[in-house]
Amino acid sequence: MRHLPSPNLFLSKIFNDLKSVEIDISNYFLDHICYRVETQKKYRTLKSTLEKENQLLIESEINGRNISVFKLKNPIKFEGRSIPLLELPAPKTGSHYTDGWEHIEFVIDESLDLFLEKNQNLTFDKKGFSKPINRDIRLKLGKLSVKFHEMSLEEVIQIEKSE
């Protein structure tokens, strides 16, 4: 990951924020991390650079922009965890993003319904709750966010490729 800034400060902040809202993530698999870029040119350059050292699992158009997912040759290590995937979305037309880490996603070991019930004191964005495959919920933590879902992104990609 020598082409990207260290995610350690970003991850430390998210983990501390999750601790402060009392979500126990100890049993959840942190399957991917997302890095945003500001321009289409940066997207194409970084995608090309990442492809040289990592496996591009998929590049697909979602909501009018490309998103690439890479299986990292050297997973990101953080607090005893190993994060195997990197999501790289192209910027959406009309939206402004600055380069940087944006969100992480956990695979939970229970249904989202039960997870929501256990964490009903928090406000989740449920926009992805009705997706037909791998529904998800998002918790905003200031400018950062964490998503929780029931299947790993790699499993979802395998399902999509087999359809």
Describe the fold and architecture:
The protein is of the alpha/beta class and 163 residues long. It has four helices and seven strands, in the order H-E-H-E-E-E-E-H-E-E-H. It has helices at 8-20, 40-53, 112-118, 153-162; strands at residues 29-36, 55-62, 65-78, 81-89, 100-107, 136-141, 144-149.
Give descriptors for this structure.
2,3-Dihydroxybiphenyl 1,2-Dioxygenase, domain 1; 163 residues; 36% strand; alpha/beta
Mean pLDDT: 92
Lateral strand order in the biggest sheet:
2-3-4-1-5-7-6
Rg, rounded, reads 15 Å
CATH topology: 2,3-Dihydroxybiphenyl 1,2-Dioxygenase, domain 1
What would you say the CATH architecture is? Roll
Compact overview of the structure:
The chain has helices at 8-20, 40-53, 112-118, 153-162; strands spanning 29-36, 55-62, 65-78, 81-89, 100-107, 136-141, 144-149. 27% of the residues lie in helices and 36% in strands.
What is the secondary structure topology, with strand pairs?
Layout: H1 8-20, E1 29-36, H2 40-53, E2 55-62, E3 65-78, E4 81-89, E5 100-107, H3 112-118, E6 136-141, E7 144-149, H4 153-162
Parallel strand pairs: 1-4, 5-7
Antiparallel strand pairs: 1-5, 2-3, 3-4, 6-7
